[in-house]
Amino acid sequence: MVAVAFPHYVAHDAFHKRFIEFPVIVFSKIYSNYSPYTITTKLRQGYPRGYHVVIVCDLALSEETLISCQKVSAYVTHAVFLNCSWERFLHNDDGFENRFTHFSHIWITDSCPATVKAIGGRAPFEVLSLAPSIAEVLRMDRDD
Length: 144
Fold this sequence. Notes:
Elements: E1 2-6, H1 9-15, E2 24-31, E3 39-45, E4 52-60, E5 72-79, E6 103-109, H2 113-119, E7 125-128, H3 131-143
Parallel strand pairs: 1-2, 1-4, 4-5, 5-6, 6-7
Antiparallel strand pairs: 2-3
């Protein structure tokens, strides 16, 4: 069974109406007072245990948002992944696993061409094109 998780309330507010048929999980980010790069997450709403959790967020600057659940998939509109942090999610051919290889899928859009080029279709990443959605909006504007 699938549950949809939002890493913070901003993502929840932006996307939750599109996922009303799924159980919802919301986390919050807690930033360290000592290091701006140290982020932990805290469960605020819902229960992820027993679900295949799909994290939905508009922006991924690093991997920290995406490591809170045991089996998870994620959707990220703008997959920036600073300092090539996307490499931590790659499924290894040699059987070696790290703490990030439990991701079933990570769907990203083609809004960050440099990331798309670097990832090159390697598992668990799948690139979704924004072009059909943009074309549809343009057609709707033309018809009005």
